[in-house]
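Input record (Table S2, row 738):
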Amino acid sequence: MAEKEHSPLFETKRAKGRVFYKVFSLSLFVGICFIWVYRVSHIPREGEDGKWGWIGMFCVELWFGLYWLLRHPFRWNPRFREPFRDRLSQRYEEVLPKVDIFVCTADPVIEPAVMVINTVLSVMAYDYPPDKLSVYLSDDAASDITFYALFEASIFAKQWLPFCRKFKVDPTSPAAYFKTIASSTHSSSHAKELLTIKKLYQDMESRIENAGKMGRVPEELHSKHKGFSAWDSYSSRSDHDTILQILLDGKDSSAKDVDGNVMPILVYLAREKRPQVPHNFKAGAMNSLLRVSSMISNGEIILNVDCDMYSNNSQSLRDALCFLMDEDQGREIAFVQTPQCFENITKNDIYGGALQVVYAMEFHGMDALGGPLYIGTGCFHRREILCGRKFNNQYKKDWNGCKNIDHMKEASLHELEEKSKALASCTYEKNTLWGKEMGLLYGCSVEDVVTGLSIKCRGWKSVYYNPQRSAFLGVAPTTLPQVLVQHKRWSEGGFQVLLSKYSRAWYAYGFINPGLRMAYCYYNLWVTLSWPTLYYCIIPSLYLLKGIPLFPQMSSPWFIPYAYVMLGDSSYCLMEFLWSGGTVKGWWNDLRIWLYKRTSSYLFAFVDTILKIFGFSESTFIVSAKVAEENVSQRYEKEVMEFGNSSPMLTLLATLALLNLFCLLGTFIKQVFIIEGGLRIFDTMALQVLLSGVLVLINIPVYQGLFLRKDKGRLPISVAVQSTTLALSACVLFISTR
Ligand SMILES: *[C@@H]1O[C@H](CO)[C@@H](O)[C@H](O)[C@H]1NC(C)=O
Ligand SMILES: CC(=O)N[C@H]1CO[C@H](CO)[C@@H](O)[C@@H]1O
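Output record (2-acetamido-2-deoxy-beta-D-glucopyranose complex):
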């Protein structure tokens, strides 16, 4: 037994084949250096064509090369983790810590109530002692429909949790379970109960959906729960009192399931909002939850999930505890991050939504350097660390001696609700450290990343756990504008982190590994790629049209480093993509999104950030993520790109696509019909032809969307007109200038 006590609760494996990778990337780097040397040593002389174009190419290639270097810490030494749940139960089953689960929702239209309660039900049914589990729903829209749905869920849970326990249901989200079970046959007792519970669920679902359609909760239901009276004084979602309801309190007889077992605590919270007080978005909601939950259940572990991410594995809580409770290494681990996985990714993933390389590769690499980012969902935290505790070497957590202050026992439910309410008021945070040193940090649109970084700056590490079977499954964006807007927010947030006071922290403290610093830079510098990529998409093609070479010709020895770097790097990326579970077509799609992100999302994020610095607070570009509803999901399943309403982003993308098409066509026409022996261009300007050619091939969906498709998801006519005009005039202007 004594020996067993020392066997760790998880193991760490290193990746193989790293030597090959190191040699290969060194050779690529040599190639990149040759490219730089070529650019510097071959600048056209004064008066020669293409001098400025050439210098621009050098700057762009310099930046691409330097940025490429930042990619390496991720791939140097990836680590893979494996927890041992059975050891955890052997040693700690009796003293498992309390866990508070925070689910955040913010908009009942984008995030329908039925989806939200499926997430809530799925985490309530974790394989974990229910008296140690509490689930909090933060509703930033303060929608009575969401409250009503949660109330219905609290009743349904009394049947659902025993059902899950009896038949070892997994996934524990009812909607997902009924979907997976549809095709398989089961024992008759299961089949009978399944029918009953499915009926219950469907009735509940239609009641909630009806309320949603009517836009309000039917009057006759108001008498069913006192909580509805809170909406009597409600004026709007940005102006209301705190609404806090403990729907299941874990001890009343009304909080027992049909088998008489205790149920997890279930709480609805809509924090106070006033128009004149900044609410700090999700970070503000999380901090209110932190305080309110400390009064009600005060769990030591906090799991934070988005409302669209249901649990796909009822064991993942125990998995995470293996890391946090490990006697030896657990003491320095602040949080365990799981990857964000999606249930509705199509086979070839047209929008690159799965982020496979990030989750299958890069986060493992960061794990070796001190831990992955905190990405705001699917993350298990330790409360005291999230609330600002600093690391020190003597620190050791004694899980056996955890004393749970049980406010539940002391106060009556009503008193408890009143006391907790005060913690979610607008004014509570005034003159406190909340948002600055405690809880999630304010003032950045990627509050989670900044918070994770500040935790690392306080000396802690994090762990990345990427299980075979995903811990949580969410919904990926299904239209191009959604994807572009999402990436704009991420890249803008990353850039803010770099410019903000938090970035100083990286240098001020010795805590963060230089490799990890590079990795953070890799993500935070996304926006700086916008201008170089635009340059590479425009200038070489225009010069091609004009007949001025910007790359070495094929017969020159300088051609070799270009060919090697381009070919080597793309084959490496392709291999990595396939290794992460993608398809070849998926890689091609990913490449397209990679291009679109850089030339639109990052560009707009860059411009917006700069405008903000100079005091223009409103974004000048109105970007709409809304799309025509009709048949969107059918097209998504057929992997047809959904462009949606016209927006500056789409015009930009279409212009770039057309510009390359015109340049390539113009060049061919010129060579074949006008200049004799014109095919020599394939020697003198092979790389420019190749570059334009690839850009045209990758943009095929745009041409289709502009001119061939008839459905609602095509590019709007106005975009077609604007972009054609812009692209043509750019070509004509460029040719006619000297
Ligand atoms: C989700 O869980 C089911 C079993 O419950 C499993 O078959 C499936 O592969 C999981 N999904 C993912 C993406 O891991
Ligand atoms: C392929 C797939 O699973 N598509 C689904 C993605 O999510 C939307 C919204 O939940 C569904 O309508 C699709 O069927």
